[in-house]
User: Fold this.
Amino acid sequence: MTSKTHPLITLLASRGPVAVAFSGGVDSSLVAFAAYKALGQKAMAITGDSPSVPRRELEQAQKVAQQIGIRHFILQTEEFQNPDYAKNDGGRCYFCKGELYAQIHNAKARFGFQTICSGANLDDLGDFRPGLSAAKEAGICHPLIEASMTKAKVRELALEWGLEIWDKPASPCLSSRIAPNLLVTPERTLRVEKAEDLLHDLGYPVCRVRYLQGDIGRIEVPKNRLPELVNHFKRVSSFLLTLGFTQVEIDPEGFRSGNLNQLIPLNQKMRWTQTA
Assistant:
């Protein structure tokens, strides 16, 4: 049962009308759920849409918002028009979040909210997250961080409160699949989306198709499922080649979240490391 006295709900109730930057993942869904319980129609969820957002994720965000009952709006963001975003030099997330928060701020007069909330949790503070710098500049509230909630605590509470996506795997944007310093384009993100859609259809809910220099596609699935993927490789590789990849590989190390961050040069990381 949801308690009106839970610290997360109490915190959101004190922030007046709020808009939650809502991806449909477990973190932002928990914030949206708590905001709705705290504020009812004075809470809303806002999802940014662009070529970096898989259609399956957008559809799920709509479904989750409907299940919560919160008002849900989709705003078109234009980060791909920003050369600093497209060049992908380690600061891509900074420009992406900056664009998203600017679009949400611009909607304040239309929707009448006072506070913008993110789904960042306590664990995010220990990771390479340039988007947190953009959030700090935009005055974004991080309820999960304020409530000292780690990812594990988020999932635990989401399960307790009956959110169906409590165990949903993390699903970063499609642009995160593009190797650092390789230009991010809608054509490349679409290739990744179609490739990962095939893997999802084949039964790999946790997967990544990394887009490397030379238009190489490198597939990651959990290590214990690599033997299965080898059996599917002919079909998968043939499809990826038709999408425009020049070569297709299986990563023998298996799935690793944030794997491409290792390719960002240290000086670029230092430039974009948030200090919030």
User: Anything to note?
Assistant: The mean pLDDT is 92. The chain has two domains: 7-160, 174-256. The longest helix spans residues 226-243.
